[in-house]
Structures are given as C-alpha cells and as structure tokens.
C-alpha cells in the first residue's frame, strides 16, 4: 500500500487509536492484511488503481451465518451452554450398556428437540437480517462508468466511483461532494440517521470542482484524494484533493455521509471515499452482541452446582454399593454372580457411580430448556398482540424482535434515552410572547369555555393555514397598529437565516436550519409580517399587505458561545437598525440601563414561560447612525479578512456593536413532546427506574426538555451542572456535587434542613471551577469517591447535567468511579453534546460499575451503538429511519409504550419465569430424590423406583403442560394494577423472586417432599395386606403408589402456585392428572404386554394396586403431609409479612365484590388524556432557563451574504403540525427515604400518623370505580399491610373538621385519612392527600378564582395552566406557587371537586 513517508500531524488523533478490522483482500496478501490502514488514497474514475489497496466493497453484512457456516457455528454456540454440554455427556454415558439403567432415547429425543428449536429460532432471526441486508445492498444507484451513468446496486459501488444522487435519495456511501445543481456547489442534507437531527444541514463542494456538473466533464476528472483512514468521528474529516498539480484542503463540510438524505437539491455528484463497513455510519454501529439475561447466567451457575450435588450423591451411593457388595453381596455370589466385566466390589462401585449419575440426572431435565424457550416465545407473542401498544397513527404494532430477553424487561434499573424523536416530536410551535411588558397567549380559563383557534385568513391571505394561536388580544394589537407590536414581528421576519421558496403566489415554503427559526418566522408571517424572499444584499417582506424591501447590511451569525444572532438592515427610508434575538441570559445584560423596569417585567414573563417548559428567547433592537455603521463596518471587514484569530476578532466586533440595545419583548416556543412522555417518565421514576437522557443537543435545549417531561422538577433538592473543560475541573465539580448531596442528606435526616426550593446550580458555586466559591464548602480530602453503598443511601432528589466536553473527561479510566458515584446518586441525569460512541460508553460504564440491568431507547442511527451496548435495546419506529429498529430487541412507535412494556409485560415475564423455575426445580427434586432414598433399600444396585416409561413421560407429558400454562399465563395482579402501583416492579430490580436463596428453598421443599413420598408408602405398605390377605409389600405396588402420590402432590402444588386461572390452566392441570391415569392403565394393560412382553413388566400393577383402599389412604396421607406445611407457611407469611402484591390482590378482591355495574374502560393509562391544546406543560419555577436552540453549528449567515444559496429547490422542510395536548402529574409523590414532615398535631394529642406513600400509591388512578383505599376501608377484615397502601382521600365536607374527626378518618383498616386544620386549629395550614399525591399548603393568600382538577379517566390529573390572578409566592408543598394551582378534594367515585379554602 502506498503511504506518505510522514503521516500528517493533524491525523494523529484519528490514526493512533484506530484498531480496524481487516477485510478480505482480492489477492490475499498477508502483509497488507496484517498492517493497519494509515491513510487512504482514492483516484477518481480509476477502479484498477483503487483495487490495489483492497478497500472494502459497499456491501454490508449484519447477519451471523450463511448456508455453509450455519450448522457448525450454531451448534458450537449452543454447546457453549453448560446444560447442553451436560446432556451430551449424559447421552454418551447412556450408550454404554454396562452402566445405563435407562434407554438412550430418554435423553437424545429431548436434546435433539432443544437443539432444533433453538436452531430454527436463530435461523429465523438471521434470515430477517439477511433480508434487511439484501434490501439495503440491492438499492439502485447511478454510477458514472466510462462516461455514462449506469444503474448499479449499492453493493457493487466501489471506492473511487462517481455517483449521482437525486432529491430525497439516501446517500449510499461516504462521498466527497464534487458538484451540485444548486449554485456554488451547495446541497442540503438531512442527517437524522446519523445524529438524530431532522433539521437541514448544508454542504458545499470544493470551488474547483463545483462547475463539473456535466457527466462528460466528470468522466474526465482524475483527481486524487489523500485522507484519513476510516474512523467513527462524524463531525470531522481531514484530507487533501490533488488535481492538476494543485492541492485543495477538504473538511467535513465537503462530505456527504452514508445514511444522510439529499433534500431540496435537484441533483449532485460525489466521489466515493469510504464504502460499506468503512463508512462512518457503519463504524458507529458497533458489533452485534449476544445478549443473555441474568436468569440465564444464574441458571448456568445453578446447573454447575446441581451437577456437583449430583456427583456427591453418586459418590455416596457408590460408596454404599462398595460396602454392600463387600459385606453382603459376596454372600449371594452363588446365585447372583457379578456380570462381566465386574470382578470385584470396587469396580462394581465405579460402575454404580455412573449408573446413578444417569438415574439422578433428572434434577436438571433437558425439558427445562425446552419449556423456557416456549414460555419466552409466548411472552413475545403477547407483546406483539398487545392492542394498547399499537399506534393507529402510523399503523405500527409493538414487536418483540428477540425472544431471549423478556424476563429481563422486569429487572431494568437504568433507562438511557435519546431526546429528539424519542421524547419529543421535534416540532416547534409559537406559543406565547411578551411585548413591551404585556404577555400574550394566556387564554386558558379553567372554569370557562375553551377558546377558539384564531382565523387569520380574512386578515392576512398569506397566513400559514397550519398556524395555531388562541389569544385574539395580540391580533387586535397588530390590527390597531401598535408600533412596538409591529416592531416585534418585524424583527421576527428579518432576524433569521431562513430561506424561502414561493412556487405560486402566496404559497410559501420556508427552509430553516432549525425548527425554532421556522416557528418564529411562521408566527410573524401569520400576524402580517411575511418573509417573502432574499438576495445576498436584500430581504423582501410583506408588512400588513404592503411589500417592503430592506437592505441587508450584515448578519451577525449564531454560535454556541454567543447564544444570539443579529442582523443589520437599512429600511426604505434609509434608517439603519440592528435587530437581535437570543438567550435572555446573554441579551438582557447588553441592554440600555433605561430598560430596567421593562427588564423586570419581561423577566417575570420569562420565568413563567420557562415554568411551563417552553423555550424562551429575548428580542431587542438598536438604532445606528451612518457614522456608527461605517466605523463598525470597517472593523468588521478587517476582522473578516484576518488570517490569524479570525473567529476571536469577529466575536469582538460583534460584541462591540451588540450593546446599548432596547428591549422589545420575549418569545416562548413549545418543543412538542410525544404523547404521554411526562406520565411515562413520572411512573417509571416511581418504579425506582433511573432515567438518563443522552442527547446531541446543547445544554439549554436538553434542560428545557428535562423540565417539560418531568425528569427535572422543582421538587428536586438541587440540579448540578458539570461544565469543566479540564480533567481537574470536572473532578472538582463532581466532588462538590457529592459534598452537597451528603450535606443536604445529613441535614434532612437530622431534621435541620426543611424542604428547599429547587435550584439549578453550578455545583453549588458560581462558575463551578477553580476552588471554593465562598470558601465555605469543605473539599473531600481523599481522592477516591465514597463507597457506592453510602451514595445510594443519600436521601433527597438530585439531578445532574453534564456537558459533552466534561463527559469526555468523565469517561476517562481514572474518572470513571468519580462520575458513576455522583451520577448514580441522582434521580435523573442529562448528558448533552454526546456522540454516538459516547452514548455506548456511558451505557458500558453503568454495566461495569453498577451490575444493573440497562435499557437503551432511541429512534435514529446515532442510537444504534447505545442500543447494542445495553442489556435491552428498544427502537422507536419514528421519522428518523429504521436503523434503530433493525438493531433493537424490541420496537414500537411511541415512547409512552415503554411504560407498558416494562411495568406490565416485563414484570409479568419476570414473575412467570421465576415461578416457573421455582416450581420446576421443586418437582424434579421431589421426583429424583426418591431414587436416592431407594438406593439404601435396594443394595445400591442402581435400580429405579419407577417404571422407565413413567421416568420418560414425567417431564414430557405428566407435568410439562401445567407448568407451561403457569409460565405463560400467570399473573399476580391485573395489568391495570401494575400501572397504578409502580412499586410492584421493585422485586424484579432486587432480584427477589428467583435467586440462590429461593433456589435452595425450592430444592429443600423438593427434598422434603421426596422423603415423604418415599417413606410414608414404604412404612405403611410394608405391613399392609389386601382384603384377601396377600401382602402389599412388593416392588411394583410400591412403585405405582409412589408415582401416583408424586403426580397428585405436584399437581396440587401447582394449583396452589397458580395465581391467575385461565381455561388453559384448568385443562392442563386436571388434564395432565387424568392423562397420567389413562396412560398408566394403558401401559400396565394385558394387551401391550402381549405384544411386547420384554418391554412392559408392570402388567396389571395399576389395576390391582389402585383398587386397594389402603393405597389411596397412603396417597392421601402423603399428599396432606406434603401440602399442609406449605399452606401453613403461606398463610402465616400473608398474615404477618404480606408483600405489596398481596395487599393489592386483597383490595382487588374487595373491589370485585363491591364493584358497581357502571362500565369503566380498561383501556390503560392513556385513554382520556387528551384535552384542549392549551393544557400547559407542568409548572416549574426557579431560575430562568433559556431555550435558544437554533443549530448545533454556525448558521447560514455567511452563505446568505455570499450569495451562494439563492437558487432554491422545489421542496421545503416539514410543515408545522398543530400543537397537541399533554397531561401529566402536577406534583409527583416523593419516595420517602425517611419520615416526612409531620402533620399538624391536634391540641392535646399526638399528630395523626400518615403512612408512607412509597410502596403502593396509585399513580394512574382515575377509574370510575371508587378508589382502592376507599373500597378496602369498607371491608370488615383486618388490614394485611396498613403501611403499604396510600392514605385514604380526605373528607368531602367543605368546612373545618372537628378535632377528633381527623383520627376517626384515619381509623380505616387500609389507610389513615389525613387531618385538615383550618384557621387556628393548627399552625401547619392544611394537608390533603389525593391517592398518591400529597400536597401541603404551608402559606397561602386568598385567591379570587377557584382552581379545578380535570377528572381523570384512566389518566393522571392534568394541569390547566395558570389558574388565577392571585400573586405568585405562597408555598404549595416544597415549591413556591407560581400558577395558583390548588389541590382538590376527591369525591367518592373518582370525581374531583374544587377546593377554594385558603388560610394565611
């Protein structure tokens, strides 16, 4: 391979870490295959030259097998399972006649069945991978071959080919853009498959090739590209183009990456640089990993233990055989001689050992693994068939793409989620604004009629028909001609980098680099200030029906440091004005001092908008004189032409002119969340699942969405921001955060610190870097972080926001422990500016340090590596392609379905699998250990207790179907209760239902049962006789009695273990019992014996044995001795230490008895959540959080002013859909780590106790039935667990309760009602509990408007926006009330009644 003598220094960061996989070369040269690619040389239109380097073809392959390799590779993988190897070993033993007491078919048939089922499943999965690969590889592409364009499949494209792309086509490989149909070689792409962003990005060809638009010219192009080797860095590319003796630098702006889609560009041509597995998309895909559940890993360990136990039993019985043969057996040699080759008692013991290994192998029968696969398949079909996870909008059902991970869905502790397209729809809508101190958009009247959507058409024919706004006051202000209102919308129509296309008169299509800008320009358009077109030097608008053309003097473009953008324009009258919009945190400090009063009012409005989860911007302007403009223009020109420090010089010039501005107002934009996202996150949080958002967005956007979707709330104790740029500063910020957590936790536990307001702090100090802010905080003396167990015990709700550059340092090896210790103590973590590879690294970090089950969910190709790294990968089939779905284990259409996937299907799958395994080990130990006890009575001769056909059929026929029915259909509580009580999910996280302790309990019960089943019949039948006086103490009678007792006992046991009976359970349990008697009588019949006299030795045994009353009494006694202790233990446990599921089941039974006939939907958590579109996102207060989210890079400003982008194509960006409504919890129930704030005590008496809310609080209440607590309180039975049910609702009475009534209200069996104190009754104000939501109003002012809670029909209470004009500032719970929302009293039947009683 030809390489440069010296590798360019700029490529070191990319080349040095590369560990590339080798692809098969064409000539098989070993020297080339063994050497890593150090640089890439590509010559255009020269396949012969490029083939020398053996570059990878454009064919991709994600499948694991082909026709030749399937059988050997799949068998090799299957025999890596300990159990399969174990059964193969047993099969070999059974083929040796000297040691085998059982026929070989008892093992080979089940083993072949297991291997076949697994192979078919693996083949099916791989077939779909092949099908997907073929679909991609066979896409058509136009390749320039010998001067003409020819259609070729993607898989046949080679490095060095020139291909043509047309509008809306996917880019087939990583291309160097050569030319485009747009002016100056520009083209527009959508990179949703790469980074999840749906906004357009611009790419431009090198100037020397941009005119090569004709195929004839391109056919003669022979330029050579020397560039970096393949790597996974999506945001950088370094290379050089050599052509006609000159060199041209290449950057990422010249590249079109595979997975992008060409938009708004008629056609373009590109040179293939990287193909197939070398493309950056595939380099970021990560390797397909074989995922196994924790139960699988535990079962492998248990199989080894059981095998050890089996060896021990074999050794014991072999020693017994040696002793017996030496002491007793020698006396029988004359008529019972040893069979050859046995010639002494030691060799007899050796053979006896292997015989017992074969006989006792059923402690782990191979049918276990067959049953596990069948159960998992059934669970997968339940997910696929779930109508409540079907999205009618996109006609997409949920899909379980794997069958091996279902029970792990019930054990998830960490969820890693993408943001754009996963939590949000990435659709922005103009929602509210503040102009000259007056706010517009607040139109929701909780008790009044819903407002109507404004019709802009009569006022403005050019208005966007999809634009929604409801406040007619703003429209009236525009109509009457208020100057500042006009100036506000004039700014929005001029200060942007949007490009417009007008196909026909009035039909405008805006192409915005950011959906934020599109929303603002669309709002200005609808209110009469229509942006029509632009040139490099002008902007043409239509203002109130009058065309106006402004001279564009300069664009001061946006970047992430400035957080603002400005334009300088000259109006037709010749006046020069600067318009600026940006983050309020940077813009308000650049205003004239005379704006102070307006700043205060606008700041209040910004706080309110931010509290509603909206993305805010501030708007300002400045008039410039000609002299000021000329002077600044000259300084700007010098800075623009500077060869060194150009960016810094431009920033200084921008800073100079953007001063002394006048404030106009502010805007509020809503980034639409997907339906049900806040409720889903709230409920998952109550299930003790920690949610991390890993997004490529900037910090402000991510934090805003965090508040909107209730990941971050004002109830949180503190939100820490990690923004250090060095390892040391990041370490320092993480330590400060931990110190603060520990200090707050200690203060809270000691009662020294009450509920604090939520605040967003840079780690407790200003700036977050360089020592203590005030010197008051004490640094941790040791470098090592506190133990994870200590951090886990911290009480309080904290959140962590980490910037991308800080995360890069936090992921370094010496920082991992610090980062994990801090982050895992937080309830929510948001990582911003994260690359696809970093997403996978964060997931791997948690898997490595926390030993917790992780789930990753995303919808774009940038999430593939994260999805593959997590224990469970979930793909959302959204608008960003299908790459995430193809790489996922489960897929569905909307994020909200994740709640049902985990809390219902996941919890049920885990519960069913655990119950199945416990019962399976129990029944097999009960079955097998009888052989062990029998060995002591048969001279250790390896004689079996049962007939060999019973041994063969026990696990295949007699006991297989009942346990399968339980494993597939069982439930402890209905799906609705699983959603209402998220705490039911916690046993899976703690792995309580099946672990080593539970395993030993199961085998102990099995061993106890085997003792009873052997010794009870042995003792009774040894002295029993038939009615004719014939003794019953014979081997065949004993075998039939024991086998019958065994089948009856295990059938009764599974009947006790089954919590949810279906038709299948009844048929399988009682049908299996009936099949035992049918098959047994058939096998013991005279007819079969007559046909096969050497195979059926128990002729007539069943008939003669089961006719004896003493035999049935023996079976009944053995059954009672086995079952009664189990029943006693379970009743005692239920009475003394009930589980939460027991309590929920109890209340469910009460509900069923007292249920009213009124029909109530069982449609799940999401029916009835829709409301008027003006329902605001959850209230939050605190510091203002800017939502300035234009692009992640420089804007289009430089391109606009250069005139390179003025010819526009025929397609536009996505239109803005009408805003949707979102509902969620107003106040989340806090998980009580310790005792909460006490209720106000009554005079002369103790305070009424309030049970903790963390165990069983009904979150998704809203059934039309009476609440569980109220129903249970009517029951006369004692409460199984008073502390596990949420407090009952408060009384309906509007007046103050008497002193004694509080205790009476709390005296119900299943919960204590909280006391209400009014006026002088108690200093604590009043407290009210609504199911799961506990709100304390500590200080209130009178309110002149009643608040109301929307009745919840299978949904959470919705917040209705600002309730009334009362002053913000009084406390509701731990949060200052800013919206006037007050709780309501819950009436019987589930309806809400407004509560207007307030005390100061």
UniProtKB/TrEMBL annotation:
Mg(2+) binds at residues 418, 420, 859, 863. It is found in: Membrane. Keywords: ATP-binding, Magnesium, Membrane, Metal-binding, Nucleotide-binding, Translocase, Transmembrane, Transmembrane helix. It is a multi-pass membrane protein. It catalyses: ATP + H2O + phospholipidSide 1 = ADP + phosphate + phospholipidSide 2. The active site is at residue 418. Residues 1364-1385 have a biased composition (Basic residues). Residues 885-1138 form the P-type ATPase C-terminal domain. NCBIfam families: ATPase-Plipid (TIGR01652), ATPase_P-type (TIGR01494). Belongs to the cation transport ATPase (P-type) (TC 3.A.3) family. Type IV subfamily. This is Phospholipid-transporting ATPase. It comes from Betta splendens. The lineage of its organism: Eukaryota, Metazoa, Chordata, Craniata, Vertebrata. The gene is atp8b2.
């Amino acid at each position: 391979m030809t390489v440069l003598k010296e590798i360019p220094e700029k490529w070191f960061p990319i080349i040095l870490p590369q560990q590339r996989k080798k692809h098969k070369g064409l000539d098989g040269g070993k020297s080339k295959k063994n050497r890593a690619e150090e640089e890439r040389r590509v010559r255009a239109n020269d396949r012969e030259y490029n083939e020398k380097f053996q570059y990878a073809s454009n064919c991709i392959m994600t499948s694991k097998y082909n026709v030749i390799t399937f059988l050997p590779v799949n068998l090799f993988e299957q025999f890596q399972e300990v159990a399969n190897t174990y059964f193969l070993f047993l099969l070999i033993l059974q083929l040796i006649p000297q040691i085998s007491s059982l026929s070989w078919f008892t093992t080979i048939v089940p083993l072949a069945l297991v291997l076949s089922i697994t192979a078919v499943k693996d083949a099916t999965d791989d077939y779909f991978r092949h099908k997907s690969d073929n679909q991609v590889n066979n896409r058509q592409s136009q390749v320039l071959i010998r001067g003409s364009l020819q259609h070729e499949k993607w898989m046949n494209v080679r490095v060095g080919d020139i291909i043509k792309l047309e509008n809306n086509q996917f880019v087939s490989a990583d291309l160097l853009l050569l030319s485009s149909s747009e002016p100056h070689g520009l083209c527009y792409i959508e990179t949703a498959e790469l980074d999840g962003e749906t906004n357009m990005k611009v790419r431009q060809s090198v100037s020397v090739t941009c005119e090569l638009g004709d195929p004839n010219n391109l056919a003669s192009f022979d330029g050579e590209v020397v560039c970096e080797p393949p790597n996974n860095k999506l945001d950088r590319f370094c290379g050089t183009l050599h052509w006609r003796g000159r060199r041209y630098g290449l950057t990422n702006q010249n590249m079109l990456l595979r997975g992008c889609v060409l938009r708004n560009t008629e056609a373009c041509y590109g040179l293939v640089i990287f193909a197939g597995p070398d493309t950056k998309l595939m380099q970021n895909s990560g390797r397909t990993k074989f995922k196994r559940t924790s139960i699988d890993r535990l079962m492998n360990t248990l199989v080894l233990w059981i095998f050890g136990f089996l060896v021990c039993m074999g050794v014991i019985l072999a020693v017994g055989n040696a002793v017996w043969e030496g002491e007793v057996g020698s006396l029988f040699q004359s008529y019972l001689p040893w069979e050859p080759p046995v010639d002494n008692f030691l060799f007899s013991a050796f053979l006896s050992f292997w015989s017992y290994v074969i006989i006792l192998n059923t402690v782990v029968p191979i049918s276990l693994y067959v049953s596990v696969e069948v159960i998992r398949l059934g669970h997968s079909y339940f997910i696929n068939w779930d109508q409540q996870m079907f999205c009618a909008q996109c006609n997409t059902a949920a899909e379980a793409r794997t069958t091996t991970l279902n029970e792990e869905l019930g054990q998830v502790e960490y969820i890693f989620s993408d943001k754009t397209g996963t939590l949000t729809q990435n659709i922005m809508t103009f929602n509210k604004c503040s102009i000259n101190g007056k706010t517009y958009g607040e139109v929701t009247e909780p008790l009044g009629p819903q407002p109507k959507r404004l019709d802009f058409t009569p006022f403005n024919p050019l208005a966007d028909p999809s634009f929604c706004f409801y406040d007619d006051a703003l429209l009236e202000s525009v109509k009457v001609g208020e100057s500042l209102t006009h100036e506000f919308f004039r700014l929005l129509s001029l200060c942007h980098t949007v490009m417009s296309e007008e196909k026909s008169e009035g039909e405008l299509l805006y192409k915005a680099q950011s959906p934020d800008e599109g929303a603002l320009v669309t709002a200005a358009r609808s209110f009469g200030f229509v942006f029509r077109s632009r040139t490099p030097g002008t902007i043409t608008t239509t203002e109130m029906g009058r065309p106006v053309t402004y001279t564009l003097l300069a664009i001061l473009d946006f970047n992430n440091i400035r957080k603002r953008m400005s334009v300088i324009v000259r109006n037709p009258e010749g006046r020069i004005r600067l318009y600026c919009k940006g983050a309020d945190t940077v813009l308000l400090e650049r205003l004239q001092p005379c704006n102070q009063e307006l700043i205060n009012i606008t700041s209040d409005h910004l706080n309110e908008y931010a509290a509603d989860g909206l993305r805010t911007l501030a708007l300002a302007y400045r008039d410039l004189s000609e002299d000021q403009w000329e002077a600044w223009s000259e300084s700007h020109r010098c800075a623009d032409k500077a060869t060194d420090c150009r960016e810094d010089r431009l920033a200084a010039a921008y800073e100079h002119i953007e001063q002394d501005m006048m404030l106009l107002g502010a805007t509020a934009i809503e980034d639409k969340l997907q339906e049900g996202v806040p409720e889903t996150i709230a409920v998952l949080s109550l299930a003790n699942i920690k949610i991390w958002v890993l997004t490529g967005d900037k910090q402000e956007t991510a934090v805003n969405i965090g508040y909107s979707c209730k990941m971050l709330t004002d109830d949180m104790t503190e939100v820490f921001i990690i923004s250090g740029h060095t390892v040391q500063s990041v370490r320092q910020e993480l330590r400060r955060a931990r110190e603060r957590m520990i200090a707050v936790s200690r203060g809270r536990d000691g009662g020294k610190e009450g509920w604090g307001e939520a605040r967003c702090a840079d780690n407790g100090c200003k700036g977050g870097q360089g020592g203590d802010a005030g010197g008051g905080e004490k640094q941790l003396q040791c470098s090592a972080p506190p133990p994870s167990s200590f951090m886990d015990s911290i009480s309080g709700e904290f959140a962590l926001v980490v910037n991308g550059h800080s995360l890069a340092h936090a992921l370094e090896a010496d920082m991992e422990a610090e980062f994990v210790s801090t982050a895992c103590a937080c309830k929510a973590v948001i990582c911003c500016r994260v690359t696809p590879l970093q997403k996978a690294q964060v997931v791997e970090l948690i898997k490595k340090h926390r030993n917790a089950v992780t789930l990753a969910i995303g919808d774009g190709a940038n999430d593939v590596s994260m999805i593959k790294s997590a224990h469970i990968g979930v793909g959302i089939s959204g608008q960003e392609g299908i790459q995430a779905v193809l790489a996922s284990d489960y897929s569905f259409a909307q994020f909200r379905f994740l709640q049902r996937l985990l809390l219902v299907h996941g919890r049920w799958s885990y519960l069913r699998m655990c119950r199945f395994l416990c019962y399976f080990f129990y029944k097999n130990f009960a079955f097998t250990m009888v052989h062990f006890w029998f060995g002591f009575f048969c001279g250790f001769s390896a004689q079996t207790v049962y007939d060999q056909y019973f041994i063969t059929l026990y696990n295949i026929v007699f006991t297989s179907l009942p346990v399968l029915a339980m494993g597939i259909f069982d439930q402890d509580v209905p799906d609705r209760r699983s959603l209402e009580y998220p705490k039911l999910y916690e046993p899976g996280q703690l792995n309580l239902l099946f672990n080593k302790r539970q395993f030993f309990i199961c085998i102990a019960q099995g061993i106890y049962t085997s003792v009873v089943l052997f010794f009870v019949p042995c003792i009774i039948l040894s002295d029993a006789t038939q009615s004719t006086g014939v003794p019953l103490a014979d081997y065949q009678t004993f075998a039939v009695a024991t086998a019958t007792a065994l089948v009856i006992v295990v059938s009764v046991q599974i009947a006790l273990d089954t919590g949810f009976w279906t038709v299948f359970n009844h048929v399988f349990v009682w049908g299996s019992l009936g099949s035992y008697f049918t098959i047994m009588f058939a096998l013991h019949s005279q007819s079969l014996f007559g046909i096969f006299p050497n195979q059926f030795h128990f002729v007539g045994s069943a008939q003669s044995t089961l006719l004896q009353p003493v035999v049935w009494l023996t079976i009944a006694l053995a059954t009672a001795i086995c079952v009664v202790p189990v029943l006693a233990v379970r009743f005692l446990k239920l009475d003394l230490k009930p589980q939460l599921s027991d309590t929920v089941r109890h209340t469910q039974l009460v509900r069923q008895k007292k249920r009213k006939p009124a029909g109530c939907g069982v449609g799940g958590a999401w029916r009835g959540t829709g409301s008027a579109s003006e329902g605001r996102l959850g209230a939050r207060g605190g510091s203002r959080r800017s939502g300035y989210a234009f692009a992640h890079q420089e804007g289009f400003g430089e391109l606009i002013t250069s005139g390179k982008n003025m010819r526009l194509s025929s397609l536009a960006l996505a239109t803005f859909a009408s805003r949707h409504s979102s509902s969620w919890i107003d106040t989340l129930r806090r998980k009580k780590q310790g005792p909460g704030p006490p209720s106000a005590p009554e005079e002369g008496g103790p305070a009424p106790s309030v049970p903790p809310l963390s165990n069983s609080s009904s979150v998704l209440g809203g059934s039309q039935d009476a609440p569980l607590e109220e129903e249970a309180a009517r029951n006369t039975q004692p409460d199984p667990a008073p502390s596990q049910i949420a407090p009952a609702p408060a009384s309906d009475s509007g007046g103050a309760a008497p002193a004694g009534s509080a205790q009476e209200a709390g005296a119900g069996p299943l919960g204590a009602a909280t006391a209400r104190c009014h006026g002088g009754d108690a200093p604590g104000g009043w407290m009210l509990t609504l199911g799961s939501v506990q709100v304390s109003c500590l200080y209130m002012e009178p309110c002149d408007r009643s608040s109301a809670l929307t009745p919840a029909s299978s949904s959470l209470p919705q917040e209705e926006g600002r309730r009334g004009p009362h002053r913000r500032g009084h406390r509701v719970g731990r949060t200052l009330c800013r919206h006037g929302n007050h709780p309501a009293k819950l009436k019987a039947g589930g309806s809400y009644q407004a509560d207007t009683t307030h005390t100061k």
